[in-house]
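Annotated sample (chain length 171).
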Amino acid sequence: KTISTDGIQNALNGSSQYFTNTVQTLATQLPLTFSIIVVANQWDVIQRVFDISTGTTANDVIGLRMDFSDSGRWSAQHYDGSTDSNAASIRTSAEIGARRHLHGVFESLSSRKLYIDGVLINTSTTAAVAPSEINRVTIGFAPWSSSEYFNGRVIAPKLWARALTAEEVRT
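Output written by the structure step:
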């Protein structure tokens, strides 16, 4: 099963624009792969790029984000509501104005991979708790926050209910 929004190419202003869609409950079992092309305009404390979640709480979130508070990083994050929200994150440098194709491959509760422009950047094996019912896809905003908006362009976000291989990510 793939959720695709091919053809979307939108600028988000970082303060009020985003996409969200409540969907039929997605399988809560991993694997999952996120793919999105982004161009960041600025850093904020945390900017959510592409998430699936339970909706209005910060628990049970799987997705991609950029984070200025950690020296400006991209991360593929599985946040399970623990006190350490970065327990299952992968971080790497990001640049303002650069077009980047991000893939977050979530193979299991203890395996996440972050690819940028088809290159494996980092892997995290920190264990996380299985998400509960997942029923919301959000691009450019965290529904549980009043400040986690993405400021930049998003292009062709896709979500697969499987882990893409390294070869599939490269092509």
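Annotation: The CA atoms of residues 53 and 61 lie 5 Å apart.
Annotation: The chain is about 5% helix and 50% strand.
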